[in-house]
Structures are given as structure tokens and as C-alpha cells.
Amino acid sequence: MDGLKEIFKFVTEMDILDLLDICLVWVILYLAYKFIRERRAGKLAVGVVILLALQLVSDFYNLIAMKFILQNVLQVGLIALIIVFQPELRSALEKVGGEPFRSIKNLTDTKDAALYSEAIDNICEAVCDMSLDKTGALIVIERSTKLGEFIRSGTEINADVSSYLLKNIFFNKAPLHDGAVIIRGARIQAAGCFLPLSTNTDIVKDIGTRHRAAIGMSENSDAAVIVVSEETGVISVALNGRLTRNYDYTRLRKELTDIMLEGSEKARPFKKRFRVKKGKDGTPSDPDDREEGSL
Prior knowledge:
Blueprint: H1 2-12, H2 16-37, H3 41-60, H4 64-84, H5 86-98, H6 102-108, H7 113-133, E1 137-141, H8 148-151, E2 155-160, H9 163-169, E3 180-184, E4 187-193, H10 209-220, E5 224-228, E6 235-239, E7 242-244, H11 249-260, E8 272-276, E9 290-294
Parallel strand pairs: 1-3
Antiparallel strand pairs: 1-5, 2-4, 3-4, 5-6, 6-7, 8-9
Helix pairs in contact: 3-4, 7-9, 7-11
């Protein structure tokens, strides 16, 4: 009963700063939960919670030896966690640093949306052609996190995005076909670039080096990475450490429009939809026979 009175007294005496304090704590806890849930740190977090529970039990029952061991383990363990999960922490801090300025960027950015739309069309055309030919490809689209260190690992090109150029780069006898192409803005910045491989042990074993590099790049930055499988021709996109497969032209174009134009109003005139041609009875005449329309 006394506990309830204390809680009631605390609630009634709260001011706006106390509410702000609580809200900030909840936001931090939510972001920490989201960060852990989406990464391999999730399983390890369970072990940390168990250690903290044992620490509370040892404090309550005054288990001196257990308390001493757990205190030292937790102190050393915190430093060990920072070292082990340095790539994930770096990625999270880079994204936190980029998000607050994204809305400002959308207001002040003067980029030519038509140029970006043309680049998206060329990327989608090249990727779908390479998918049909089963030509392996790895295309990185830079976003708010700058990829200068990875650009320097390849050969600088600095050319407009062209479907013919992309297909020539990834032609299986071309000297740069084994590396990645990095696109900055609406230009191909470099080719033959080396990307970090993902170390996530939960990734399925049937994917190859290109897909692991795509996931690794998306884990270490907010870049979007397009992969064309050399074995199957399947088109995949890696974003935020997750790989999504089986893209076609329409779905890939929509995804790239949202990524490269940040889903802004400028993207609307350049988003295309496809209508299925219908016969006289109103039913689709051919599921694969589509005509291009505009919004």
C-alpha cells in the first residue's frame, strides 16, 4: 500500500521536464531494442539479461563470491561488447547522424529529378538484361553515408549512368566485372570496387560472395545494393543488412525511385505504373502483356 502511495505521489508531482525525461528514456530504449533485434546481437542480449538477473539475485541474497565475479564480468564484458560489435555500432551511429539532416536535405536539395529518373531507367534496363543473360552484377547506390574509402579501392569512372556502360563493365571478360560499381548521385563513380563481406552467421549458406558483399555493404552503411546472380539470374536488393530477392523491372524501378529520390514529391511525376491490357469481356488478354501508363 505504501508503494502505491509513493507511485501516486510521484505521478502527481511530475512536471514537464519529468515527462520529457521519461519520453527520452523510452526513445533510447526503443532504439536500442530495434538495433539489437535487427542484428546478430539479439542472441547475445539474452545472455546479458541473464547475467544482470543473476547480479540482482546475488545482491538480494548477499552472495559475496557470486557478486564479485559478476561485477567483474560485467565491467570487462561491456568493453568486450564494444570491441566485438564495433561494425554494428558504427553503422548505427552513422545512420543516427544522417537521419536528422535528411528532411533538411529534401528541402534544400536542387538535384534534377529528371536526371535521376533517367539513371533509374538505365539501371533497371541493364539489370534486367543482365538477369536474362545470367551475367553477375553488383551495383551500390550511395545514399547519406559517403563511400569514399570503397570508391578508392576501385577504378574511377565518373560517367553518366548508362545501361550499355553497366553491361560492358559486368561483361564476364571485362577487367572490372568481378568488383562492384558504386553510383553516387546520378553518376557511375567507380567500378571494380571491393566491398566488405558480411560476417553474419545467420545468412543462408546457398548464397555466394556477391550476395555476402551486398549484405556486408548494407550493414556498414545505408547504401542500397543491387545483385544479379550469375547462377540463376535472380535480382536481389540488400538494404539495412537484409536481402530481398526476386525483383522484376517494375518492382525494382519503384524501389530505386523511393531510394534515390527519397520518396519526395519530386519523384511522383517519374513513377510509372503498368496496366494489364484487357479483352472485350474485361478479363486480362495476356498476364505478361502490359502497356506503360503515367500518373
